[in-house]
TrEMBL record:
Name of the protein in its database record: UPF0738 protein WAZ07_09070
Any single Pfam family the record assigns to this protein: UPF0738
Domain of life the protein comes from: Bacteria
Family label: Belongs to the UPF0738 family.
Organism: Bacillus bruguierae
């Protein structure tokens, strides 16, 4: 089973940011927000965790979408991922990212490329 969904583009809606994800074979209706974000240093991405009854699914938000992400965070906009025309709110996204960004700043454990990109965009 595929456990990673790649965000391909971003759409802006009034007071919301929509991450448009690639098509997947997953039963999207069963997915729920886990309210947790990880880092993929190798791919310069944030990974928002969704879950169903049997597994975790990672929504990969690449650095190419971070400028829009920063804008949404600054404006307290809700964030969603759209998969197969189903939108799932990425609950606690801003709080999770605020915490991660604070921890990534100057922290070589995340890798130089990721630290540099996070600092360039968010700090």
């Amino acid at each position: 089973m595929q456990n990673k969904i790649q965000v391909k583009s971003v759409e802006k809606r009034e007071n919301a940011l929509i991450f448009c994800a690639e098509n997947t074979e997953l039963c999207v209706e069963e997915l729920k927000a886990r309210s947790h974000v990880l880092v993929d240093s190798d791919n310069l991405s944030f990974l928002y965790i969704l879950e169903n009854e049997t597994s975790f699914i990672y929504v990969s938000i690449p650095h190419t979408c971070w400028e829009e992400l920063k804008h949404a965070m600054q404006n307290d906009e809700k964030m969603f991922v759209r998969i197969q025309d189903v939108e799932i709110e990425l609950e606690q996204m801003k709080e999770e990212l605020d915490y991660l960004i604070e921890n990534i700043e100057g922290n070589a454990n995340y890798g130089e490329k990721l630290v540099n990109e996070v600092e360039r965009v968010f700090l």
